[in-house]
Amino acid sequence: MKSDPKSAGLSPVDALHLRDAIRASRAAVAAGAMPFGAVLVTADGRTLTARNAPAVPGDRTGHAETNAVRDALAAFGAEALRGATVYASGEPCPMCSGTMYWAGVARVVFAGSGAAMAAQGIDTIAPGCAQMLAPLGIRVDGPWLEPDAAAVYADWAAGAR
Ligand SMILES: [Zn+2]
Asked: CB–CB of 53/33 below 8 Å?
């Protein structure tokens, strides 16, 4: 594995979950969806993986992180989400950032930055996740493992062109 100086603070557990989120982003591409995956880990260690849903005309809200929160609410209940960490293959958008905030997520770790997405023609919306969530007391780490995530964006772009 190439060393990535930006990933210097990445712990082995963070790396494991973030790689699972990137793996889910590949599954999203295979399913005809935008290239994003997410892993939600509750404070007591339960995990749930989600990915972007294939586009439905008129509905572009099926993002991996929002799907992870909804699926985790159904699977674990609302209390379990307090203090959870979400690992996202891409920097979460304002909709997903708000969803995670309302659910009580305490930390967000992301792989690809908005700039890496934009480089592959993926729409992004400001503000970035850290800018939005850090003032609300949510810790945001990333971009980490960005080359791995960006490779999936490139594969998606190659198929979308
Ligand atoms: Zn989103």
From this structure: yes
Is there a contact between 57 and 66 (Cβ–Cβ < 8 Å)?
Answer: no
pLDDT digits (tens, 9 = 90+) for 101-136: 999 999 999 999 999 999 999 999 999 999 999 999
Per-residue pLDDT at 1: 46
Ligand 1 mean position, distance from CA 43 (Å): 22
Q: Report d(CA 129, CA 110) in Å as an integer.
A: 9
Q: Give the pLDDT band of residue 5 (cuts 50, 70, 90).
A: low
- Model pTM? 0.94
Place of tokens 């992004």: 124
Determine the Cα angle at 147 with ends 116 and 104, to 5°. Answer: 70
Q: How many angstroms separate the alpha carbon of residue 96 from the centre of ligand 1?
A: 4
